[in-house]
Amino acid sequence: MKRLLALGIVALASLALLCTEDAFGQKKDKKGAKSTQFPAEPKDYAALQSAKEITGSVQGADGKSITVRIDVPRYEKNPNFKPPTGGNNNNAMQQVNQYSNRIAQLQQQVAAAKTPQQRNDRLRNLQREQNAMQQAIARIQQQQAKAANNTNPNNQPFKVVNDYKDFDLDFTDKVIVRKMFLETGYDDKGNLIEYTKDKIAKLRGDDPKLPGYIAKFDDIQPGVIAKLMLAPVKNTTKVDPKAKDDDLVGTVERPTVRMVILLAEKGNTPTPKGK
Predict the structure, then answer these.
(1) Which residue has the higher pLDDT, 7 or 74?
(2) What are phi and psi of 247, to 5 degrees?
């Protein structure tokens, strides 16, 4: 649970940075791609302009563009939570509630930031509040363990809910595709393929600065988890937080993908389930 809460904390900060397809043009025919379930909105693309990389599940790709789904966990209060008795625990729960309300306010402030410097300052404040809330939750868990009332894993003060955003991004003209793994396979005699030192060196390619191994566009399959290295836009779009998505159609420039790094084979990376 602690690990899950930590992931939620990190994702909350990521949400501020990453905070329909029809609004930006016709849908593209990507191999294996299904109609997008969680289309990113113009404001999401505007928030993405300052990001250097994103990681998500590939939904489809062709030679010109890729659709990737980002999983953004967030906290919700557990209505079924039954806190153990004790004055100290009640004080800790009050602190958690205060941090939760403060975090919600800071997230709105981050979304309304008008300059990169303003956004970074507010993100730092948000991170401090998130860390403080995590410590308060840890104290509650310790008290539960001491009272032997934490036998039910569902009896936690907060639960994690997953949100998803599908981003459709174009490749740069010289996009690079790499992978961080070597496929398992068999030779003609049914023996497991062994990778010698020379073969591995060849698969890495001539540029030692590039991560992993040489990959092809055909390796970008739906369901694979990939890291996209982004080329930032030259002119970032200032978005009025009160503006409607229809007002932003055609005005938000998207970053492009300069490198795709496949992180694991498809069989080892299940696609996140939708709501």
Answers:
(1) 74
(2) -75, -15
